[in-house]
Amino acid sequence: MESSFEERENDMQLACESSVADERYARFELLSAYLDGEVTAAERKQVQKWLDTDPQIQKLYTQLLRLHQGIDSIPIQPATPSALELSEQVFQRVDRQQRGKRLIFIGGAAIVAVVVGAINLLFGHDSPIHRVADAPQAPLELDSEQLTIALNHPIVEIPSAALLPSEQLNESNKK
User: Fold this and answer.
1) At how many degrees (to 10) do helices 41-53 and 55-73 cross?
2) Nearby residues of 103 by Cβ (< 8 Å), 6 or more positions away
3) Residue-level pLDDT, tens digit, the chain, 175 residues
4) What Å distances lie between residue 48 and 59, 66, 174, CA to CA?
């Protein structure tokens, strides 16, 4: 019997403590809303009455006020760019680098063309290369007799087994 009595007493005590905790939480929430300017006129009067009469609420109010001001004074970091913005920036940077490489290549080709043109202008048609290219060439004389001999006497002997008699050749063509 005693145990059920003690259990009931403990339950009542817990209920009282939880109701006190709930009331403290409700006061805290109302005070926080008061600081944020999110209360009705009746709630504002209630909080002002608490501030005038309750030293614990006054202490809590000053703590919340300092916290509120501290949060307001924290510098806000700029938002990190989204994945789309970041990818756009990367592609723009790659495009700039590719344009730079293209300009270097085109500039190098232009410099080479200018140098080749300058060399051509300096040396003109009197250069040894032009003289050799412009010199008339003597016609080549071919000895047709040597060719005939070379055809009649091959350098490498052809084995006789590779040559088919004409009759066998004709028969294979008919098939």
Assistant:
1) 120
2) none
3) 455 656 666 555 555 566 767 788 888 888 888 888 888 999 889 888 988 988 888 888 898 888 888 887 888 877 777 888 888 989 999 999 899 889 999 999 999 999 988 887 777 666 666 666 666 776 666 655 655 565 666 677 777 665 555 655 555 555 5
4) 13, 18, 124
Of 6, 2, 57, 62, nearest in space to 30 by CA? 57
Give the type of residue at 169. Answer: L
Longest distance between any two alpha carbons in the chain, whole Å: 143
Burial label for 46, CB within 10 Å (0-12, 13-18, 19+), is: middle
Task: Tell me the C-alpha distance between 117 and 124, whole Å.
Answer: 10
Single-letter residue type at 154: P
Distance CA 117, CA 11 (A): 105
Give residue 17's Cα distance to chain centre.
58
Element containing residue 123 per DSSP (H, E): helix 83-123
